[in-house]
Amino acid sequence: MSDLPQLHALVDACRWIGARGWAPATGGNMSVREDARWCWLSESGKDKGSLTAADFLQVDIASSTAPSGRRPSAETGLHTLIYRLYPHAGAVLHVHTVNATVLSRIEKSSALRLRGYEMQKSLRGQTSHLESVTVPLFDNDQDIDALARRIERRAAEAPLEYGFLLRGHGLTCWGRDVAEARRHLEGLEFLFECELRLRQLEGV
Fold first, then answer.
1. Cβ-Cβ contacts under 8 Å for 145 (sequence gap 6 or more)
2. What predicted TM-score, i.e. pTM, was given to this entire model?
3. Is 152:160 a contact under the CB 8 Å cutoff?
4. What is the pLDDT of residues 63-122, one digit of tens each?
5. What is the dihedral of CA 187, 191, 194, 199, to 10 degrees?
6. Which bin fits 183, alpha (ψ -120 to 50), beta or left (φ > 0)?
7. Which residues neighbour 63 within 8 Å (Cβ) at sequence distance 6 or greater?
8. Do residues 9 and 179 touch, judged by C-beta distance below 8 A?
9. For residue range 142-173, what is the model confidence (pLDDT) as tens digits?
10. Angle at Cα 190 formed by Cα 193 and Cα 133, nearest 5°?
């Protein structure tokens, strides 16, 4: 584990997330891919701003199980789903920000569509504010296996690009490595705050 630089980058990202209050009360979970078979995922019940490398468990991507017997995050199945669907995904961040949580409840459709923001270019592949960013939105579910199946069916219809929202729950996003996942998180959170404020001002 100590020779996995991306894990140490993830620990730094977790402290950054914790400092911003984006994973309160031990909420949220983060992971990094080791290879095609394994990922390292935060242990359940730990404050994300205080994590060390020892607080991450090796998890089998195919089965979502941890050989150590320790308990990984409740949303383990969502992380492993992303790694199975997208071989390029190298890190996954799941946070409970106020903006993502509130906006996911205000938006009643199956996706949040953002357009006209310069900061859309913080997302990989976006080159203009004139393009549209679609963030899929799923109803929350305590049955993570059932939720993962719904997300997988949606992804079969249209690939998920940066992340998705869970209604009243939060944001899950990813990137090719920790740095890109972190940039996507920061960019999306900025966009969510802008959209939420705009809707409040417009009375939408």
1. 77
2. 0.95
3. no
4. 999 999 888 888 999 999 999 999 999 999 999 999 999 999 999 999 999 999 999 999
5. -160
6. alpha
7. none
8. yes
9. 999 999 999 999 999 999 999 999 999 999 99
10. 95
Q: Three-state DSSP class for 170?
A: strand
Helices H, strands E: what count in the chain? 5, 8
Distance in angstroms between the alpha carbons of the first and the last residue of the chain = 48
Three-class DSSP labels, 27-90: CCEEEEECCCCEEEEEECCCCHHHCCHHHEEEEECCCCCCCCCCCECCCHHHHHHHHHHCCCCC
Q: Which two tokens stand for residue 126?
A: 């976006």
Spatial separation of the C-alpha atoms in residues 90 and 86, rounded to whole Å: 9
DSSP label at residue 94: E
Determine the distance from the C-alpha atom of residue 129 to the mean position of all C-alpha atoms in its chain, rounded to a whole number.
Answer: 23
The label of the residue with tokens 């996003």 reads 173
CB atoms inside a 10 Å sphere around CB 52: 11
Identity (one letter) of the amino acid at 123?
A: L
Instruction: Let me know: does 4 contact 40? Beta carbons within 8 Å.
Output: yes
Which residues are within 8 A (CB) of 17 and not within 5 positions of it... i.e. 6 or more apart?
23, 28, 30, 48, 49, 93, 95, 185
* Most distant pair of Cα atoms in the chain: their distance: 52
Please state, in angstroms and rounded to a whole number, the distance separating the CA atoms of residues 16 and 10.
10
Domains defined for the chain, CATH in brackets: 5-202 (3.40.225.10)
Tell me how far apart the alpha carbons of residues 25 and 83 are, in angstroms, rounded to a whole number. Answer: 26
